[in-house]
Amino acid sequence: MNQAMSDDGGHAAHEAIAGRLRNLRRKRGWSLDRTAAATGVSKAMLGQIERGESSPTLATLWKIATGFGLSISSLIAPSERIPGTDIGRQGALPVWSDGQLQIKTLFPFDAALGFEWFELTLPPAATHLSEAHESGVLEHVLVLAGTLSLLIDDRWVALSTGDTARFAGDAAHGYRNTAEMPAVFHNLIHYAPGTHHDG
After folding, report:
1. How far is residue 73's CA from residue 94's CA, in Å, rounded to a whole number?
2. Residue 127 contacts by C-beta under 8 Å, 6 or more apart in sequence?
3. What is the CATH number of domain 8-76?
4. pLDDT tens-place string over residues 32-69
5. Domain 90-190 classified CATH 2.60.40.1120?
6. Which Pfam families match (predicted)?
């Protein structure tokens, strides 16, 4: 799904985000101006996302989720899955892509546990830079296939298949794949207690 913008699944995912953003605004009684102030995303961009005229980047979605006090998974893949015992079938797991980074939601955010768990695929020669998330966020990475470099504390650290890393997500960080094959890795994002909800 490297070209999610052009396939039906990618279009459906972005339509779902558009609807989710509209519903969140209505539920809270927020205007586009109020939403722009809370998220740091321009009113024009928010309107384009809601109308399905723009495919937001992951960085933009993080800003929107943070502004609403949501986890990223509750914005990109709201779930009907029940907390506790949970079975997710391979073909039924939600997948989202910004055209470069593909994100499969393995376990959506669970407020009782304080984390969400993703499988990410970064294509060859791709780099994804992330702004600092809110205070207290920790990221845990396990490389499943290929090699991955992480930008942590202003330096790139190389990881190979089977390597792990944990780092503060509340500082700028990044992911880079310099290999000729996709890098596939798990990313578990842990939020500070009481800071996020499902919307």
Report:
1. 10
2. 174, 175, 176, 177
3. 1.10.260.40
4. 999 999 999 999 999 999 888 888 888 888 889 888 88
5. no
6. Cupin_2, HTH_3
